[in-house]
Amino acid sequence: MKFYYFGGVMGNPEDPKDPSNLNKHNFSGVMFTHDIPEGDMFVKTAKDIEKGEDIKYLVAIRPYTISPQYLSMINRSMDRIDKGRLQINLISGYIKDHEDGVGGVVGDINDNASALDRSNYMIEFLRVLNEMDQDKDSPGYWRDPNHKNKLDVYVSTTNSYIFEAAKKYGHKIILPYHIYARRGWSDLVEGSSVSIPLELEGMEIMIAITPIIRKTEEELDLLTNHVVRPVWKKGEVPQPVLDAAYFTYEQFDDLVKTLESRGIRHMLINAVPSEEVNVIVPFIKRYVEENKK
What we know:
Layout lengths: L1 E5 L12 H6 L4 E4 L8 H8 L7 E6 L6 H14 L4 E5 L24 H17 L21 E4 L3 H9 L3 E5 H6 L1 E6 L2 E6 L7 E10 L2 H5 L6 E2 L9 E2 L3 E5 H13 L4 E4 L7 H15 L2
Parallel strand pairs: 1-2, 1-13, 2-3, 3-4, 4-5, 5-6, 6-9, 9-12, 9-13
Antiparallel strand pairs: 7-8, 10-11
């Protein structure tokens, strides 16, 4: 199993969420979320990346804010800094209040578009991305016969429509744990929720999960209402995190082995509340080392 950390922080080697620190703690990748006031994560990645490390930089981007062509250009430039370290996470987007009013998108689809319209844009984006000849050598001074420029893409999937598009074009997906656990999509069809079974065979999947991990059941029993999602919009109320799950060490190991038996070899781990990072990061380091023996 390869573990990725959700919500990395660059520029502070002492922070447990720093890529270099996560690399030392046996994480294979770190995701950087799309949050407008945080700045451009591609620029930050180019500045932050350490060539002697292996950890992947998985940068989340809303497709309506960038073109497939420009993503390809960024990927080629990053490969010249350190080949194969950049990965792209395409997300349809959850818009927070502190991003409201930033704007800057030319076209009908932007941060204020409906979830359905943003999903449809994602599907069209994947089609165009698939039609690009990403492996073709670039002309002029870019030409390098030994270089291929195929984007390494994960598609965040929360409904069957985006899932089917990702499957059609052979993309990897990030699947929320709560959808995986119930083994089906819950799509809205004409205003009603319809359950559609998951069919994951032949796909490369990363499970997104918010684990609470303790040594004993007794410790877990003390953590009632421990995992509550932050409020990012006016009118919202605190709610339990949908992808939260509670594990003893043995139960977490059982989950990993079950996922691996089903061909799932990547987990994206979120820490909620934030101080859980101080449990999760050393736990993963120890877990990976023990399972190498």
